[in-house]
Amino acid sequence: MVVQTACLLEKCALFRPSPTTIKHMVSGTGEVIEEQKEALARQIQEDEQVPEGTQAVAISLDRVNVLLSERGKRKSRKAERPRVGESESTRTAYRHAMVGNISYYGKEEGQPKRLESRYTARMPQEKFLTFRKQLEQEIKACFEQIAEGTTELVMTDGHPGLEKYIRRNTLLKECQILIDFCHAMEHLSLAAEAIFGKSSDAASKWFDKWRQLLSHREHSITGLYRSMKYYSTCLHDARCDALRKEMNYFKKRKAKMNYAYYRNRALPIASGPVEAACKSIVKTRLCRSGMRWSRNGGQNVLNLRTYLKSGRWESFWKHHRADCYQNELAA
Q1: What is the pTM of this model?
Q2: What element of type H or E holds 107?
């Protein structure tokens, strides 16, 4: 990637910095951002305004695997034949990076319209303390700026760890919590397969029926649960166990699945922005073939990409240049 950047600059800017120079520039800028991240965030937030026409704010967060250049336990299938000196650890390990998103929504022709999104991304860290602190700073700034009466939503994929964090966070206690519609449909699909078998017409019809009802009729989750409970009495062994697992998923989260209520009010029901951010901010840059990262090196890249994808590059660069100029004067 660094070599490609050097070649591109040579073609369009009539000069070609070495790949090593570009790498040092990214590392140096990233280190400055890390040292001043809280002050920079406040300066950037002071430059911003809530998009005109905002009626709702949706907060979402998700995890994404990144390959680190550090030792970790082998997770692949064990070799069928023994090997001399084989170790249970490898020189690389996958760990979860975190991505957070705050999206502002308006309304257009009775449908939710995403007006703007702001992102936070952090490399893997124990308990994600830095990520949580940065995301909470963004949430505080957002809540201070939005008008009274703006709908505040939190979207989650239903992961127990994320739900626990959301439930215990006092900043989010007034927010309405919603299970991402796409993740709910994945579990609905698994329930259909458990009842009727994979790739069957009956499974497709049952899935389509309840997908439509969940998205267009309020409180239809109760009817869905009754339907699954009825079919569970007709199944045996593994398929019955699989269906009961999905029944438990919907039962525990039914209060967070009234999708028709939000659709009827032109509010979002899916966490598409954070799913896209996991791909565009993290995966497409850090997860190319053969890539592995140090935590600091990966974070230097993520800092720059979050500013760019959040539409904050100009504001960031203005304050970054001003800080560099002040430091030169002080020196």
Answers
A1: 0.87
A2: strand 93-108
